């Protein structure tokens, strides 16, 4: 009766659906769900439920395990040698601050709406289905690519552990494939498939394994820091091995520090994975703030200490980008400590296992919740009744990641991942402001003051970033940068004074609203501006592909799902002899 039927039942039906694309797009693109729907009705589409078995220490362990292996052991070498030099320490501190501010935004959403969808769910209840899908697709992409990058680095550290040069990575070169895609890494493939089996088996058992591995890994990190500071040379903080290279703690200037921060931001994807575990947390109100923010603070301190020990051990221009810590103990003043290089190879491989375990848990839960929304096939939403894990999403993404890791070089992956992470964190910071200041009914429902503020603030941040990036140093640059900062501060102050908050979180909220999320917005825009043009081209191409998928499939699948719901409601209305809208309200409440 009221059901729209399936748009994919036949070619004729699909043709009719495509002809109605503008109408369906207007109906679904801006459609928002509520927090209650995300946690109940939409969640029911998975069939079985995920079990609430995780505590705060599980989340802290997952956060540390997810971030440490992926960060220092993959991106630190490239960022230190090519971008920041010894000031990589400050790059990690800046990236950590930005991540902590974003973590506050994530925490407010996760406590209020403890579902497995992370940023996808947060944006779906705020800005609607289309924005959530663009963000969710980029999230899944960044997880898959970062996991592929980490798995390939695992091979390099295995080589170091047994004493082979890092140029011998147990990879097979295929001459006819293009450069960057011609070294096949079967060890990475085997590792990814093994972890896929583990996360399909049990979330709680995966967390227990992660805590054990992470505890041992942190002890190993403490050893590396201690040896690095005791055996390194302070001269390496200012003197490169090649006299022709730039000298000093800031060999590439302040811009190099921020370029390095954008690169190492990959390191903080792990806390985002923690937010996807919210549906499996026993006490979300208490455990999520401790787990998310606590893990970011601990990991930032570890990153800064580790990068400092690396910089003290070896000049920045001599760092091995594939295995920076192993190579560091083969240089500098570490005579007699060469054996530590082999230990580091094994230890880093050990840490990479934890980071992969956590990240692959996270990527599966993102795809599972996207499947619940009918934007992608609901097959991905299935939760196994025995293991209580999203088994289909876990298996599919595990295989996809393994295929990418087989072919693709580390350098091809890193910029794509950084830009995706920064974009998602930027969107969540905007969303937390919008949700606080725009109500659902009455005069607070007006969205234009908040949207205007967010647009103007982001514009000021973009002008600041472009000026910093493109203008030469001089009076004009200083005036423009200072003006942008002043405008940004005034905008926040005026917005805070004139626009009242429409809602206040019941359990946990971002403090100093709206200063913390706006600072996060500004920092993320700035870090986005430090990436190269090729990153934006690749990001734009991928996003355009996502839009095409949405227009050809997702909007129609979502429209069908909503139509099926309308059909059920209309039948109930006829049977009860009541108005359609009244029955719909009853149905939504149930």
TrEMBL record:
Please tell me where this protein is predominantly located: membrane
The entry's keywords: Membrane, Transmembrane, Transmembrane helix
* GO MF, any single term: amino acid transmembrane transporter activity
- Pfam families registered for this protein in UniProt: AA_permease_2, AA_permease_C
Does the UniProt entry include the keyword Membrane? yes
Membrane topology (UniProt): Multi-pass membrane protein
- Which Gene3D superfamilies does the record associate with it? Amino acid/polyamine transporter I (1.20.1740.10)
Keyword Oxidoreductase among UniProt keywords: no
Q: Mind telling me which InterPro entries this protein's record contains?
A: AA/rel_permease1, CAT_C
Question: For this UniProt entry, what's an example GO CC term?
Answer: plasma membrane
Where in the cell? Membrane
Outline the extent of the Cationic amino acid transporter C-terminal domain. Answer: 508-558
Family named by the database record:
Belongs to the amino acid-polyamine-organocation (APC) superfamily. Cationic amino acid transporter (CAT) (TC 2.A.3.3) family.
This protein's name:
Cationic amino acid transporter C-terminal domain-containing protein
- Recorded source organism is Stephania cephalantha
């Amino acid at each position: 009766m009221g059901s729209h039927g399936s748009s994919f039942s036949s070619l004729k039906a699909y043709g009719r659906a495509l002809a109605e694309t503008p109408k369906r797009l207007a109906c679904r693109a801006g459609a928002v769900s509520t927090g209650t729907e995300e946690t109940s009705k939409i969640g029911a589409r998975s069939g079985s439920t995920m079990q609430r078995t995780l505590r705060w220490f599980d989340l802290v362990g997952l956060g540390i395990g997810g971030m440490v292996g992926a960060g220092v052991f993959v991106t630190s070498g490239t960022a230190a040698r090519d971008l920041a030099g010894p000031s990589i320490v400050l790059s990690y501190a800046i990236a950590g601050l930005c991540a902590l501010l974003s973590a506050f935004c994530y925490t407010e959403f996760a406590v209020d709406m403890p579902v497995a969808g992370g940023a996808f769910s947060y944006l779906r209840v705020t800005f609607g289905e289309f924005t959530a899908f663009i963000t969710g697709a980029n999230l899944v992409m960044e997880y898959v690519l970062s996991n592929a990058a980490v798995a390939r680095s695992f091979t390099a550290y295995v080589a170091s552990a047994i004493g082979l040069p890092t140029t011998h990575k147990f990879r097979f070169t295929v001459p006819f494939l293009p450069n960057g895609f011609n070294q096949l890494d079967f060890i990475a493939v085997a590792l990814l498939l093994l972890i896929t089996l583990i996360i399909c088996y049990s979330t709680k058992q995966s967390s227990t394994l992660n805590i054990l591995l992470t505890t041992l890994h942190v002890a190993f990190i403490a050893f590396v820091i201690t040896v690095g500071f005791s055996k390194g040379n302070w001269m390496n903080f200012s003197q490169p091995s090649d006299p022709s290279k730039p000298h000093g703690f800031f060999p590439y200037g302040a811009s190099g520090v921020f370029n390095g921060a954008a690169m190492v931001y990959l390191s903080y994807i792990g806390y985002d994975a923690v937010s996807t575990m919210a549906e499996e947390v026993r006490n979300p109100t208490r455990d999520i703030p401790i787990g998310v923010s606590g893990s970011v603070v601990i990991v930032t301190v570890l990153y800064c200490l580790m990068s400092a020990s690396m910089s003290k051990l070896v000049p920045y221009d001599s760092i091995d980008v594939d295995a920076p810590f192993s190579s560091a103990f083969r240089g500098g003043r570490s005579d007699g400590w060469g054996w530590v290089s082999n230990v580091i190879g094994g230890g880093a491989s050990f840490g990479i296992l934890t980071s992969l375990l956590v990240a692959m848990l996270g990527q599966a839960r993102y795809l599972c919740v996207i499947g619940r929304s009918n934007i992608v096939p609901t097959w991905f939403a299935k939760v196994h009744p025995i293991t209580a894990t999203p088994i289909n999403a876990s298996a599919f993404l595990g295989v996809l990641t393994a295929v990418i890791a087989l072919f693709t070089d580390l350098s091809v992956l890193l910029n794509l991942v950084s830009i995706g992470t920064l974009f998602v964190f930027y969107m969540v910071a905007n969303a937390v402001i919008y949700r606080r200041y725009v109500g659902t009914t009455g005069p607070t429902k007006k969205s234009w003051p908040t949207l205007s503020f967010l647009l103007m603030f982001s514009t000021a941040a973009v002008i600041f970033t472009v000026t910093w990036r493109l203008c030469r140093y001089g009076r004009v640059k200083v005036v423009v940068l200072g003006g942008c900062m002043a405008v940004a501060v005034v905008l926040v102050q005026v917005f805070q004074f004139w626009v009242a908050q429409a809602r206040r979180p019941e359990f946990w909220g971002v403090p100093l609203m709206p200063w913390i999320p706006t600072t996060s917005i500004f920092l993320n825009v700035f870090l986005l501006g430090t990436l190269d043009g090729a990153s934006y081209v690749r990001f734009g191409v991928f996003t355009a592909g996502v839009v095409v998928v949405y227009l050809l499939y997702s909007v129609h699948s979502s429209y069908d799902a909503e139509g099926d719901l309308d059909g059920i409601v209309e039948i109930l209305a006829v049977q009860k002899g009541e108005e359609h809208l009244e029955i719909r309200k009853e149905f939504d409440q149930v």
